[in-house]
Structures are given as C-alpha cells and as structure tokens.
C-alpha cells in the first residue's frame, strides 16, 4: 500500500488499483439494491392510499419520513464517527439488513402512523449504507475518483426513477413490491460484504464526537458543503413534485390519461440524470470539480428559471426543457462528495461525508414541503423561481472554493 501523501502528490504517483472497476460495478449494484427500500413506498403509494385511506398529509409524511430518518441516522453516525471506525462493508451490510427488516414491517403496519415510524427507521438504517459506500469507493480510486463516485450516484439516480416506471406500467400488488424490495436490500448488503477494501485506505480514526462539526467549519469542506446545500435545495424538490407539475401540463394540453403520461415523463426526466452523473464525473476529473459544479448549477438553476417562464407551454416544449434540467440537476452531485474526500482530514473522510449528507437531506425536507405552499401562492412559476435560488447561490460558493488554497488538493490540482 502506498504511504499517505497529499492529494496532488498522489494524483501524480499513484498507480491504478487492479480490480477497481470490478469493485465499482459490484458496489454500485450492491448499493442500488440495498437502497431499494427507500423507493418502495413511493412505488406503491397509490395502492397504500386506497388500502389505508390516506390523506394528502399522511401520504406526504410517508415520503418525508424516510428523508428525516436518514438525517437522524446520519447525524448519529457522524457523531459516533462510525464510517471511519467500522469497515464500510460491515456498515453497509448492517444498514441493508436493518432497512430490509424495517421495510418488511410495512406488511403488518396497518396504517400511516406505524408506517411512518417504520419509514423513518428505514431511512436511518440507510444512513449506514450510502456514506460508507462513497468512502469505500474512494479507497479504490485516486485518479478517476470523480467518475467512480459519479457512477455510484448515477446508479442511485436510476433507482430513484424506477418507481415512476412502475406506476406508469400500472403498479403491482403493494405487498409483493415491499417483499421484493426487502429481499433486494438484504441481497445488496451481502454483495457489499464481499467487496474487499481498496488499496488506498484512509488512516484509522479515534472516537471524537465533535469532529463532524470541526470538519464542516474548515474552509474547503465548508465551501463544498455550501455548494452541496444549494444543489440539494433544488434537486429533491424537483424530483418529488415533477410528476404533479407535468400531470397538470398534460391535462392543460388535453391529454385524458395525464397520470400515466406524467409517470413516464418523470421516469425519463429523473432517469436521464444517470447519464448526467457520469458526464459530471468525467468533466470534473478533466476540468476540475469547482468548475464543473459551478457550470452544472448555473445550467440547472437557469433551466428552473426558463421553466418558470414557460410552465404553460405545450407539453413537448416543457418535456424537452425538463430533460435538459434533469440531466444537469444531478450532474454535479457526486463531485461534492469527491471534493470532501480530497480536502477533509483523511482520518475522518467518512464522518465528513456523512455530515455533509445529513445537512443536505435536512434541507431537502424543507424544500419538498415548501413547493406546494409556493404553488398555491403563485403557481409553478413561483415555485421554480424559488428553487433556482439554491443552485445560483451554490455557484458563488464553488467559485470562492476555486480561489481558495484548498483548490490545489482537488482533482489533482485542477480545482
């Protein structure tokens, strides 16, 4: 194993780890399977509405509960430095099995209260899957790390889109979906447990509960996290509400089966982000991550503003703009994590990643809840305008990071 060096030195001297692409493919598959319970309730929400006579508020709670549970789990994990004190594959296995068990509990929940608690527990368990997986893959890649993490996030993006395809095809027996996603999660954990540790391991950490706060206060991680927050303000709110928005566009355009058309369109708009993640990884490694993230957020925020002006246009026009938005809205996502892996204290990279994700998902809960309020107050034009504020502020943070000394440690000195 190579001795610990600064990031620029490593970029210039490290040899590609044998088997790294095999490890990436296996871990990407493992994480998508392990994260399946996150999307399970979304896939069968129409059936749950009918079975449990859910109100709009109760249905929204089932969606937000996973986000909030993930935040709680991530905060606890960061405080305990779990991602830096426990081997990633063991954490992923434990999180996947716990998520599978909580997800199975929906079969006997009987109503929204118990289901909401189980969804929160599912989200908390998945906080042991996603951040450690990003750290684990960072140990396999020193050069090409942006592409590697882009592939990981791209796979998750495609998984996020699949529930909309299920709904477009007419759904399925909700109990079968819950059972299947639970089994997939357990399988994902078992696959991850068989992925060995990469050769570029981070140094061991000691238990320091306040380390997450100290890391976030450092300039490099702090600016990267501010950029990430601008990105997250827009991302999950767009994903959560696009089907409702485009369903209205189709209805206004005279389409009778607007629900199915909106489901297919949402699958395409969210799913195209998987290509965006790969492209973002390639460009981040070649151009520099601060430049790529600023470009992606500028284009994404610009798309939101253009759609605010054209929200009543013909469906083909709106869909074309939305596909462009869907590509760029996620293209930068993995690069924020990659930056943290390059500039944070090497012994606490896992803690830094977990803390960054906790803050980001906390913000998503607020923006998801805000969108329907804005739509009632001023329509989709107002909602998209407010969503655009986040990425445009994120551009400012990343331009500041590009001028900071820490930029020399990002993407082999490309910033």
From TrEMBL:
SUPFAM superfamilies: MFS general substrate transporter (SSF103473). It comes from the Bacteria. The keyword Magnesium does not apply. Pfam families: MFS_1. The keyword Transmembrane applies. It is a multi-pass membrane protein. Keywords: Cell membrane, Membrane, Plasmid, Transmembrane, Transmembrane helix. Residues 23-406 form the Major facilitator superfamily (MFS) profile domain. It is found in: Cell membrane. The chain crosses the membrane at residues 27-46, 58-79, 91-110, 116-134, 146-166, 172-193, 261-280, 292-311, 317-336, 348-371, 377-397. PANTHER family: CHLORAMPHENICOL EFFLUX PUMP RV0191, PURINE EFFLUX PUMP PBUE. This is MFS transporter. It comes from Deinococcus aetherius.
